[in-house]
Specification:
Layout: E1 24-25, E2 28-40, E3 53-60, E4 67-68, E5 71-73, H1 80-92, E6 94-108, E7 121-134, E8 146-150, H2 151-157, H3 161-180
Length: 191
Amino acid sequence: MKTFFLLLSMSGLVARTGRHHQRYEAGCRLIAGCIPFKHRNPDKGSNENSEKVVEVLMINSSSGPGLLFPKGGWENDETVEEAALREAVEEAGVRGVLMEFLGHYHFKSKTLQDEFSPEGSCKAAMFALFVNEELETWPEQSIRCRSWLTIPEAYENCRHPWMREALQNGFSKWHENKMTAGEAFPVQFKE
């Protein structure tokens, strides 16, 4: 897959709101999202040849318990990749490199029912996002908290079944295959 970058200036960056520029297809609201990830070295005392630990970034939900991956409406003036990158900046305050399309995931939203999708049907395009920058300030920081979790922790704390499916059947399988094949990842940011 092509690697996509999105450069957003922090000056004047605000979260997009409203649904009048949202994309719909066959009664489904189109969503773009990502599973942000990074690698950390194994804990002290581990074998020096141990593989790096993969962690994924989740954010709190603004409407209830549990954690989520950044996602939101795909708008008419952007590609699905740009929408996924925008949501990562707006909701989680991270930038990075889209590494892989993980698949489409269908779900029904009780809060996203509107005239174009009266049943709240949504179709989410999810991507793996290798994080290379954590922003100190971001548009939704007053309502969102970030949490770096291992994959089992993320699976346990994930609010939505479709996101657990994207984590397990999309991200985890892709990441494991990439590591097994010895493929390189972009340069990791410094913590």
